[in-house]
Amino acid sequence: MRLPRFLCAALLAGALVPAEAAHFELSTATVADLDAAFAAGALSSERLVELYQARIAAYDHDGPRLGAVLTLNPRALDEARALDAERRRQGPRGPLHGVVVVVKDVFDTHDLPTTGGFAPMATSQPARDAFVVERLRAAGAIVLAKLNLADWYGSASGSGSSLGGPVRSPYNLTRYPGASSSGSGVAAAAWFGSVALGSDTGGSLLIPAALNAVVAIVPTRGLVSRRGMMWNSPVQERAGPMTRSVYDAAAVLDAIAGFDPDDLSTLAGLGRLPERPYASYVDAQGLRGARIGVLREMVRGGPAHAAGRALFERELKAMAAAGAVLVDPLLSGIDLPQAQGAASSATYEQGIAADAYLRSLPPGAPMRSLDEMLRKGGDAVDPYLREVAAIRSLDRYPPFLAALREQARLRDALLALMERHRLDALVLPYRTVTAPGVDESLGGTARREMRNGLHAYTGLPAVLVPGGYFEPDGMPFSIELIGRPFAEPTLIRLASGYEARTQRRRAPPLTPALPGERFDYAETP
Predict the structure, then answer these.
(1) Catalytic residue status for 376
(2) Any catalytic annotation for residue 204?
(3) 142-147 and 195-200 strand pairing
């Protein structure tokens, strides 16, 4: 059968249209970039896993030996091949189909040990995935690795664990990379996976994100389930993404947010999810017309903070140039850095939280209660955990109730500022001092100098975005945005606008690109 002349002409014209060229860089590739390369046939999930495996071998196990990875998934390539076949057969499940997730080792995985970095729990094998892991796998993501962290129950100090040893910064091996989601921050920065998962009690997401120049979202309390997580605090504990772009963090949040009957804190989130995906709020012009309050009480004084203050002022000018209306100064009348010292409820919850997690483990786990862990763990158990183990009920425990009151006071003060000045968000520097050395004490003055747990104690959502670097040590500086409850869409819009305007993040110098991580390919017209 001969085709009509007009159809022949159309087909010929289409054949002559050159395919558009696209450039792929693994170091900067977003979830959307990965999906485009998958769709063009230029990349497969199997190849993506191989690229990340090569990076982990080169930089985590060898080279600078960053120590971010505790356990590799031996079935990752098989899972990737199955997802590639599914894509060819019926298309992708969504934007996370075939992407690679690396997960802090406090999230239960049914097929890999979950240890918290605590050596006596090296063989602890949960029977079920954590809620967030379950959601990510359902979206088509591949769990490649469980990540090192500050020892969850043990006496190891600093950024590492008794099981995995120290974690090191890919920006400067002599500097502290943060805790407790240290492995997640380092793995995201050094691109050991497409995206990373971390958890936050009093800054455990934002500290390593800030010190490794990655984006982090700490969702509103109640937006994301904690089921299947090792936790320190039923009040403060939250899970969230750590990524190299705001878009990727939003895409992960789309997968993990939602109600879970096994974590009744998520009742608070019912009816609060946006009608559109979180990733759809990414907007390069997102700062235009936004009203942002500069929380001056969190900008520290003194010579040690001079460099950080200068970086912050530079970033405020960039925000204003992008169209933001800055309300500055914004003062709550509270000594916010000092008030945080009395606001930590986790101080009193840790023993109860540990017992609740251990009792959720299946028969055959190395330990299944706090008492059993204290008995079997010996000197390996954190002495502080032994102290708080004596707190068996919080119902009438005065220090805990006082901490909750202080949390409410801080939360009310911040919300009142946002309401009074009609603000979209608050902005502050996450920290105005560079990271301490790996061998420096983190107690006393050093801890106070970098204390910033407003998001943790208030339960409000926060987004952290890279904002430059301290000189001469090259350690990152970051900007934090805090919003109203369940205002993640607004924060994503503002953070993506700031990110697009400044583009401050640069890849760490100690983990350069490897062969095969950069290529050009032809997109279909």
Answers:
(1) no
(2) yes
(3) unpaired
DSSP state of 257: B
Report yes or no on 249 lying in a domain. yes
Q: Is residue 109 one of the residues assigned to a domain?
A: yes
At 28-39, the pLDDT tens digits run 999 999 999 999
Beta strands in 26-163 (DSSP E): 69-72, 100-104, 142-147
**Mean pLDDT across the stretch 121-128?**
96
Q: Which residues pair with 238 in a beta bridge?
A: 200
In this prediction, residue 341 has a pLDDT band, given cuts at 50, 70 and 90, of confident
Structural domains in the chain (count): 1
- Is 2 a member of any domain? no
The DSSP annotation for 88-123 comes to: HHH--SSTTTT-EEEEETTB-BTTB---TT-GGGTT
Amino acid of residue 466? P
Residue 249 CB neighbour total at 10 angstroms: 33
Q: Is the peptide bond before 472 cis (omega within 30 degrees of 0)?
A: yes
Classify the C-alpha dihedral 34-37-38-42 as positive or negative. Answer: negative
Residue of 180, 194, 344, 496 with catalytic role: 180
pLDDT at 248: 98
52: three-class secondary structure by DSSP: helix
From the list 44, 45, 104, 233, the catalytic residue is 104
* Domain contains 126: yes
pLDDT confidence of residue 8: 41
pLDDT, tens digit, 9 for 90 and up, residues 470-518: 999 999 999 999 999 999 999 999 999 999 999 999 999 999 999 999 9
pLDDT digits (tens, 9 = 90+) for 175-227: 999 989 999 999 999 999 999 999 999 999 999 999 999 999 999 999 999 99
Contact 190, 55 (CB under 8 A): yes
**What's the pLDDT score for residue 328?**
96
Range of the domain at 221: 20-508+518-523
Whichever domain contains 57, its CATH number is 3.90.1300.10
pLDDT higher than threshold 70 for residue 75: yes
The Cα diameter of the chain in Å comes to 88
- Is the preceding peptide bond at 180 cis, omega within 30 degrees of 0? yes
- Give the three-class secondary structure for 468: strand
DSSP per-residue codes, 181-210: SHHHHHHHHTTSSSEEEEEESSSTTHHHHH
In DSSP terms, 425 is beta-bridged to 292
Q: What are phi and psi of 55, to 5 degrees?
A: -65, -45
From 169, 182, 204, 245, the catalytic residue: 204
pTM value is 0.94
